[in-house]
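=== Per-residue structure ===
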Amino acid sequence: MKKELIIVSRLQAKPNCETALKDELKSLAAATRSESGCLSYAIHRDINNAAVFILIQHWESKEELDIHFITPHFLQHSLMLATLITAPPTITYLEVVDTN
């Protein structure tokens, strides 16, 4: 049985890379939203630290997410993101328990 999955990722831009990171994330999100299995993909910015971005993704299943991780656009964006962030992203995987 497929279980819906929520992914919360935290990325911090290197100094003076905030705009470039935001633009790269927007490009990645646009491509990802058209993928089968992606229910939503939202980009947020910390109101107290403009260098910190939080991504919240909602996927139909882990299988769909695994396919996402090997798409050409994800691999390409990952290489670019690595040059713009201070450390690897912090990623939390959540399963949907209740939405009421």
In short: The helical segments are 18-33, 62-68, 72-84. The chain has one domain: 22-95.
